[in-house]
Structures are given as structure tokens and as C-alpha cells.
Amino acid sequence: MNAGPLVVLVGPMGSGKSTVGALLAERLGVPYRDTDADIVAAEGREISDIFVEDGEEHFRALERAAVAAALAGHEGVLALGGGAILDAGTRALLAGLPVAYLSMDVDEAVRRVGLNTARPLLAVNPRRQWRELMEARRHLYTEVARAVVTTDDRTPEEVADAVLDALDLKKDA
After folding, report:
1. Helix, coil or strand: residue 49
2. Could you please report the per-residue DSSP string of 11-45?
3. Does residue 11 register a pLDDT over 50?
4. 3-state SS, residue 61
5. pLDDT tens digits, 106-121
6. What's the pLDDT score for residue 134?
7. What residues does 48 pair with on adjacent strands?
8. Residues 64 and 112: beta-carbon distance below 8 Å
9. Which of 33-37, 66-70, 128-132 has the lowest mean pLDDT?
10. Is the separation of the CB atoms in 98 and 5 below 8 Å?
11. Is the four-CA dihedral 129, 134, 136, 140 of positive or negative sign?
């Protein structure tokens, strides 16, 4: 029987879920999986193309299915897309799991991703849109998280250490 992921990472775009997730998987000796990458592989196109060609609603349906499949079949470290927590069913599936919310402020987001327009939800006035997204999502990230780890001014290695400590997981020496 699948026990589910050892760690699930949630947080906004650019918070480091992919980078930190890969580090955590390496340190814990388990596989890493990213539901956004699962969607891109299954669809054969980038997420921004899915948004433009089929709309956000279609993407969210793909995302719900990808997250449910990953939660049911992956026992390593799992990173979810930034908006995955918008779905109540997804939040219910995350209940009781070792979820870490990687949080950051808007200045850190600008530094990391430049709030570029390749992000479909940030195409116009990215700084304002990022703030609005976070106002709408922050409480949902917090709701599903067992631990909140701030990524501001931290290296990926420091964030990975903080996640391991916060979730009381063993680190490689």
C-alpha cells in the first residue's frame, strides 16, 4: 500500500519548489516529482500554451487529475503547481500529509523570477497581480501546510534544511 509522499511542497511560482524538492529528494534518498512537469509531459506542451489555447479552467482540471494521481502513487518528494491549492478536493487530499508551504514576499519574487510574462497569470502588471494572487492564496497554502518555511534571503540548501527540520525528517549526514 502506498503511504503517500514523504514531503509535499506548495507555494507561489518562483518560491523554489522545484529546486528545493530535488534537493530534499536527494538528501532523503527518494524520487522527486513535480505535477507541473507531469502535465507538460502528458500534454506535450508548456503550461503557458495550455492556458492560452484551452483556458485556465481546462488547465485546472488537468492539474486536479495530475495532483490526485501523484498523491496516490508517489512516495518521494512532490512539488505542486502554485495554484493547485485552489481546488477544495485537492486541499482535502492534502489533509494530514507532510506539506510544507514555501513562502516569500513580492520583493523576493521579483528578484527570483523577475515576474516575467512567461507566467500566464502575471502577464499584465506582474507585481500587482502577484500580490493579488498571494492575497487570494496565502490562507489556502497555510490551511494545507503542516509547516511554513520562509525562503526570503535563503539558499535552496538552507530552505531544504528548514523543511527537513520543520517536518522532523532525517537528513543525510
Report:
1. helix
2. -STTSSHHHHHHHHHHHHT--EEEHHHHHHHHHTS
3. yes
4. helix
5. 666 655 555 444 455 4
6. 79
7. none
8. no
9. 128-132
10. yes
11. positive
- Read off the C-alpha cell for 141: 497554502
| 92-108: pLDDT as tens digits | 999 999 999 999 876 66
DSSP 8-state symbol, 1: -
Beta bridge partners of 103: 150
CA–CA separation, 123 and 146 (whole Å): 32
Q: What is the DSSP string of 71-133?
A: HHH--SEEE--TTGGGSHHHHHHHTTS-EEEEE--HHHHHHHHTT-TTSGGGSSSHHHHHHHH
Match 508517489 to its residue by C-alpha cell.
74
pLDDT digits (tens, 9 = 90+) for 21-31: 999 999 999 99
